[in-house]
UniProtKB/TrEMBL annotation:
<protein>
    <submittedName>
        <fullName>Uncharacterized protein</fullName>
    </submittedName>
</protein>
Amino acid sequence: MIVDLLDQCKQEDKANVYCQHLLQQLSPDHVLIPHLKERLHMDAKLLPESLRTVQFVLIGLTMHFNQLASAMLTTLQSLTNDSILIYNNSSKVDFETMPDTAILVFTTNQIMSTMTNISEQHIKFFILEEDNNRVDQRERFDNCEDLMFQLADELYRYYKLEAIGDTKLGNISLAKEKEEKASRIHKELKEIHQRFSRIDTTDICTTTKLIWLQSTYNTNDDMIKIQNLFENILPSFLIFTNKEECHYHICTTEMNHIVFLIMDTIYKDSSAIGFQQFGNVKNIYFYDQSPSAKTYTNACFQLTHDLISYYNKLGNECNAKKNAEKAKDMFVRAQKLCELLIEL
């Protein structure tokens, strides 16, 4: 579905990137694998030339990304075909099966500490560092944006080096293509930064979404009741069962919207930090769907209480901006929520 939407928006490069990402994450016998391979084969002529002397590997990073870092990575992927591999954790990475080239790994300090018994002869690490005293802005970085700029610098360097090598071998057209790719890397990242800087931070965002990330698709009674409870106040209620798809949706489609996120408790330790990085995720609520848990009332009470404060704050901000109509709408929603709270 996401691939189709990207195609409709004439973003074929990003659609191919998403297909490649799914191909890496899904099991070999997954029902979608043949369709993904067919799609990538059909679009092979549209894909940019891969780098032959280096492989870039990102491990456990994307859940730490904010919207800007995610946009930067998506753009770099669209320029580089399969030169960038992305994994959620190191257990899925098999360096032994990778081509005999230089391997540049971008990961967190925590994940790197678990990667033992690997040959570092052809591997170089770039780390998202938690300890500010170890940050050097060359191999260790304290934020995801700088780490993505380093990825861009390395991509640029290898495209230029391979272009020189291709020219010496007489592959002029291939060298020209790689020169063009090198010149586009920083240009497109600059455009992304300009697009983010143009977002009017003084404008008041009142579009609010309720999203539920489940461990499995299960439309249980509690979920239906929550959906019905808030349908006149938060009409947009989305359900995801895949955390990567949910993560991607929030940092792209909902980039300029406020999100109240309900997550199954199974994600509490492994995934919450990635969503907490997003400035548009207002609050996260953990929900235990086991039969013995009685979390419906507590979740509804906390969510309703937070929404009352949220809409009252929006109403006051709209008043300050002399937007009486929008302020009234916000205060009416807060009033309806107060009535709901009494009934809980």
